[in-house]
Amino acid sequence: MNAANLIPDISGEMSPFLFFDKSQPRTYKIYNDGSHHVGTLCVRNQLPRKSSLRLHSKMDEAFDGLFLQAVQSGIKIRTANTDKFVNYITPLMLEMFADSCGLREWITKKVERGIHNYFIRERRFKRKAYLNRWNYFVTFTYDENKPLRGGGKQTEEVFRKRLRKQLSNLHTRRGWKYMGVFERAPDTGRLHFHGLIYVPNGEMVGEITEIQDYSTAKHAMQTRHENSYFEKRFGVNDFQELSNIQVMRGNAVGYILKYIGKTGDRVVYSRSIPTEIYKKLDSHDIACEIESFVTKFLLFDDVVDWEEDVLHYRYTQQMRFDDFGYSPPMTA
Predict the structure, then answer these.
(1) 163 shares a domain with 77
(2) Same domain, 198 and 145
(3) Which of 253, 269, 285 is the last residue of a domain?
(4) Helix (H, G, I), strand (E, B) or coil at 253
């Protein structure tokens, strides 16, 4: 059993003031909410995990397309807009599946699930962005005129695959980390990739040069920082340096998040970007207790060491789960 099978303890069988307990350190799941590190006490989950296998029917495929179409029409993904989604999708689904019984009820449940899943994706993205560190906000722009080796033509699909493969290779060979999303410019429809990237010291490829050019979207001159390695292979790009404060307090995370629901594309992640970590803490590590559906604990700023606890995170490096009587296998 791995750390994914741990859940916050809300049983109430332990002391209601757990961080005053002077007994042995306990294991906590720790994430960053954008301001502070927050921990929840963990116990072993005895419930079996449900299978993720689910058949995807033609009705599911039609619904997914219409849900995205509704978002692109201007309906925001909010629980309060459930009826708007249902009213938009139902008549279009009836044209395709007129003989389906209980279609509106089925669509309502699918909309509710779609909205819920969106917020889960958004929360996962935020926690990964805030827990980890990044030093560049990058933009790669699709260029159909960029020649390929061997004389092939760069289509949008080829651009996606080549860029993801290139970033994956840099992750494996040079330790880069990345997370981002493909999107289309609202004015031109041109495909872009926006992302956060961490480049270890001495592992940058190419040279970054400051370039000034004219922005057709802003109708003004703009300054960008172009990487020669990616320019040669993909075309126009921009590497903006980021500090940890800019990630936490700036608009880089929000800028990417606004595209997650609009495009229907999944977020692209490299491996080894934890959403949360598991670590043993004692009463001296906890600042205060927070009641929010479950009991949470606000941690002091120096409790989590980024290089040791996050950058090189392995479950067996952080703890041995001695209080659970087992050690989970090493995972990436």
Answers:
(1) no
(2) yes
(3) 269
(4) helix
Beta pairing partners, 42: 8
pLDDT mean values, one per 10 residues, the chain (332 residues):
49 47 76 91 57 66 92 91 96 85 91 93 92 95 86 87 95 95 84 94 94 74 91 93 87 83 79 89 90 88 89 57 41 40
Domain boundary among 252, 269, 286: 269
Which residues in 282-306 are b (16+ Cβ under 10 Å) and which e? Answer: eeebbeeeeeeeebbbbbeeebbee
CA-nearest of 198, 147, 160 to 176 is 198
In 79-102, alpha helices (H): 82-96
CB 61 within 8 A of CB 67: no
Please tell me the distance from the alpha carbon of residue 233 to that of residue 227, in angstroms, as a whole number. 10
Q: Is residue 88 a contact partner of residue 75, using CB atoms and an 8 Å limit?
A: yes
Range of the domain at 20: 1-132+274-332
Residues 6+ apart with CB under 8 A from 317: 308
Nearest C-alpha neighbor of 42 from the set 99, 82, 3, 89: 3
Residues 193 and 175 in one domain: yes
Task: Tell whether 153 and 240 lie within a shared domain.
Answer: yes
d(CA 248, CA 270): 20
Do 140 and 257 fall into the same domain?
yes
Regarding whether 128 and 153 lie in a shared domain, the answer is: no
Number of structural domains (the chain) is 2
**Contact indicator for 212, 221 with CB cutoff of 8 Å:** yes
d(CA 150, CA 157): 17
Specify whether 189 is located in the same domain as 283. no
Q: Which distant-in-sequence residues (6+ apart) come within 8 Å of 40 by Cβ?
A: 8, 9, 28, 29, 294, 295, 296, 297
Inter-CA distances, 234 with 140, 172, 224, Å: 8, 20, 16
Provide the token pair at 137: 């906000």
Considering the domain architecture, whether residues 245 and 193 belong to the same structural domain is answered as yes
264 CB-contact burial (10 Å; exposed 0-12 / middle 13-18 / buried 19+): middle
Burial 36-49 (b: 16+ CB within 10 A, else e): ebbbbbbbeeeeee
